[in-house]
Structures are given as structure tokens and as C-alpha cells.
Amino acid sequence: MSTTKWVIDPTHSEIGFKVKHMMFTNVSGKFQKFDASIETEGDDFAGAKIHFSGDIDSVSTGNADRDAHLLSADFFDAAQFPKISFEATSFTKEDEGDFELTGDLTLHGQTKSVKLAAEYSGQMKDPWGNTKAGFALSGKINRKDWGLNWNSALETGGVLVSDEVRLAIELQFIKQ
């Protein structure tokens, strides 16, 4: 069986995250510069090799001061750790259209294994004849597992920034 390569369509993909602020509201952000690829045997995605990398300095939360703080040594330390990356270690079909994606997430100079739910949306030809495949990924990580420890206590109890980061990722790939 031949290997099929897929590359990310960045204009139709989004690498997003949400973090609770002051324990009760979510702040959303995304990475705007990234690259990803998939290698499959034929058209079956089970067991696919998946690679992702993103530029830390492309983080955007819609607030320039907050983004500057995220890039500082308090959080991502973009000067020392300019990339976030992910290498799949397994991509297992759970049910029709549902997969479990396990892999190594490297962030802030540390690599840890994470599991994400992956919903496969199917394949379709676009108006220009390109075959596209869509996925929605979701999951949670604890930012402190990667050494992103900065926080500030609130007078009322609790902390300014939650440890839990929820991932919301929409991906569209183009068959090569």
C-alpha cells in the first residue's frame, strides 16, 4: 500500500485554547503561525504519523499587553523556547469518526505525553479539485506540567490564571 501525504491548510485551520481567568471567565487564544502534516497508508487515518509545530510568538488573545506577558519568561519564554511541537505516538480509531490521538507535546523546553479526542469529519473535494480532510481535536492539559507556573493569588481566594488549559483545534488537510 502506498503512503499518502497530507499537509495543513492554514487558512481553514485554527489552533485554539481557553484558560479560566479569575476562576470564572474564559480567555481564548490561538497560535496564528503553524505547520502540520499527516502520513497515512492509503486513505485510512488509523495509525497515521502526525506532526505539528507552531511559532510561540504568533500567540494571540486579542489583547497586546496580555500577549506580551504570555511571551515573557513568566509564561512561554518565547525568546528561549520559540516553538511548540507535537509528534503522534498513536492514532487509534475508537468508533466511526472518533479517534484517540496520543503524542508527545513539547512546550517550554519540556516534552510530555498527551491524549486528545479527535473527531474525523471526512473527506471532500474543494471547487479546485483538491481532496481535503477535516478533524476537530479537543482535550485538556495542565500548564504547570510544562513549567508554566506563573500566577497571582486573589484576595477572595483562588488564583488569577487556571492551571487547566482546554484545547480546541480545527484542522483541514490537503491531500498531496
Automatic annotation (TrEMBL):
InterPro entries: Lipid/polyisoprenoid-bd_YceI, TTHA0802/YceI-like_sf. Coiled coil: none annotated. Pfam families: YceI (PF04264). Residues 5-174 form the Lipid/polyisoprenoid-binding YceI-like domain. SMART domains: YceI. PANTHER family: PROTEIN YCEI. This is Polyisoprenoid-binding protein YceI. It comes from Flavobacterium noncentrifugens.
